[in-house]
Amino acid sequence: MAKTDVIIHDEKDNVGVVVIDKTSSGQDCNCWIMENDKSIKVKSLNEVLLGHKIALQDFKAGDTILKYGHDIGKVISPIKKGDHVHVHNVKTKKW
């Protein structure tokens, strides 16, 4: 079995969490979906550190980020599949 690089908690999630020290640009990451024990791959476009999120799809400004099957914020600038998802491109909807 391949080493897990990214964990996806729920099948509905559109981001995963990096569980290795960091991804590198161009790395084919092995992603494990906890909810159903499936696996997918995503190519990391840049370095993403342990505990940070990686995009599983392309996003445009205003799109919703789903993690743990729940809305965790809105996209404020375009994000490509495999990009780092963090405070520079996602904000809470609470304010």
Please state the structural category: mainly beta
* Oligomer class: single chain
By DSSP, the count of extended strands is 9
**Major sheet, described briefly?**
6 strands, mixed
The strand order across the widest sheet is 4-3-1-2-5-8
Sequence stretches where pLDDT stays below 50 over 5 or more residues? none
Mean pLDDT: 96
Strand content: 35-45%
Order of helices and strands: EEEEEEEEE
- Radius of gyration from the alpha-carbon trace, in angstroms: 12 Å
Share of helix among residues? under 10%
Shape: globular
State the helix count. 0
Distance between the termini: 43 Å
List the helices and strands and how they pair.
Blueprint: E1 6-8, E2 15-18, E3 28-33, E4 38-43, E5 53-55, E6 64-67, E7 70-75, E8 84-85, E9 90-91
Parallel strand pairs: 1-3
Antiparallel strand pairs: 1-2, 2-5, 3-4, 5-8, 6-7, 7-9
